[in-house]
Amino acid sequence: METIKSQVDKLVIELEQSRNLSSTIVHIDMDAFYAAVEMRDNPELKEKPIAVGSMNKDDMNMSAKFNEGEVSSSPVLFEDSTSPMDSNLQQSGLSVENSVVFGTSAEEAVKEIRFRIEQKTQLTASAGIAPNTMLAKMCSDRNKPNGQYRIAPERLAVLEFLKDLPIRKVPGIGKVTEKMLKALGIVTCSELYQQRALLSLLFSEISWRNFLDISLGLGSTHLEKTFSEIKTAEDQYSLCRELCRDLAQELQKEGLKGKTVTLKLKNVNFEVKTRA
DNA sequence: GCGGATCAC
DNA sequence: TATGGTGATCCGC
């Protein structure tokens, strides 16, 4: 085990040396989006419990589950926030069209962004500011709803944030992984780090490497770009045609078998995997 | 490469 | 905490 541990620690040193704190990533997340929209559009609902669900023709799904006598506390179940506004990652000092330069700190800029969102939509958002996307996402949760949180771009600030953070809060760690780790006595991110050697024996390479990244607060600074708004069906359709045409051309050029082709269109990268 | 498990929303 | 559905990704075979 000692030799295992020293091998893992060699990797830790490498990872530390390549730690990148130079980006400022902002994750903005709408608060209880579905429920908030309904309450905005029908203020009568503000007094009432709200459940989010769907109603298909032959399948009626209501995700409501109320305990008797619990009508006044307005439980919001399945607090999903799937929407165009959700999960918008932005990078400070961004060079996208429609971007605005704020002559101020990231925190003030993000306050301004959230303020404008609320002015425009009557909906609140929370935000996280951090050196990478994983941390930014977790930060946006910290002061939800209608709040924000920043991790300073310093190693110790990152580790301090993670110290007592339950691993369940980490994106990618769900119910099952939580249970497995709990069985090993691992609940917090610092415990995840302490058990790094053990984890390297019990889990696949990819898994324990991921655990190690998490426990060190390492993450990507790469951002996905989305399309700018495409309003009409005609424009959407014509963009679709353009995509297909370019893809076909690209495949022709590369040879059709089992390749991953990267298309750049409208400043958006597409990775297309083709069947072998 | 396929199917099942896991996860985010 | 006996609930959904969907689409993506991972993982083992």
From TrEMBL:
Domain UmuC stretches: 25-73, 111-174
Entry GO terms, CC: nucleus
GO molecular function: damaged DNA binding; DNA-directed DNA polymerase activity; zinc ion binding
Top-level taxon of origin: Eukaryota
GO annotation, biological process: DNA repair; error-prone translesion synthesis
Alphabetized UniProt keyword annotations: DNA damage, DNA repair, DNA synthesis, Metal-binding, Zinc, Zinc-finger
Family: Belongs to the DNA polymerase type-Y family.
Protein name, per record: DNA polymerase kappa
Species for this entry: Hirundo rustica rustica
Taxonomy of the source species: Eukaryota, Metazoa, Chordata, Craniata, Vertebrata
